Amino acid sequence: MSVLNRVLFNVLCKDLADSTKFYKELFGLETIYDSDWFVVLTPKGQANVQIGLIDQMSQFTPRHAWGMHEGTYLTFEVDDVFEVLDRARAMGADVVSEAIALDYGQTRGLIRDLNGMVIDVSTPTAQLAMREDVIIEEVDRDTAIDQQQPGDRDAVSRPVW
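== VOC domain-containing protein ==
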């Protein structure tokens, strides 16, 4: 059996330079490979964690991958989902969903990157619960994405300002 050496998620980019700037600023990533059609980013000191950004019109981009991102989203687990959502908002990103505490132990917010890709930004809820500026409260769910699911707790975590 063949040995798996690397898993790399590639994001198709309408504008490679703008997308590179977006991911670097939002998540504090560093460039470990850079060309005119492909960039690889990683968190500092974590070379085994990588995201590829590729010009969607590059000759090296598989033609079958062109178009909208369907059936996929990208997750970044961070130490402070609220801070990242605030930074994304300040950068003009579309915040699809504010941070919500989910039953499986993560507090998740959703944004869209410059290419329309949905990004799940998450922090372990227990980590947030230790903070004095975060409370867990009941929340009304009124959109399809927010509807009660089997096993859900009806709570949201949010910072107290």
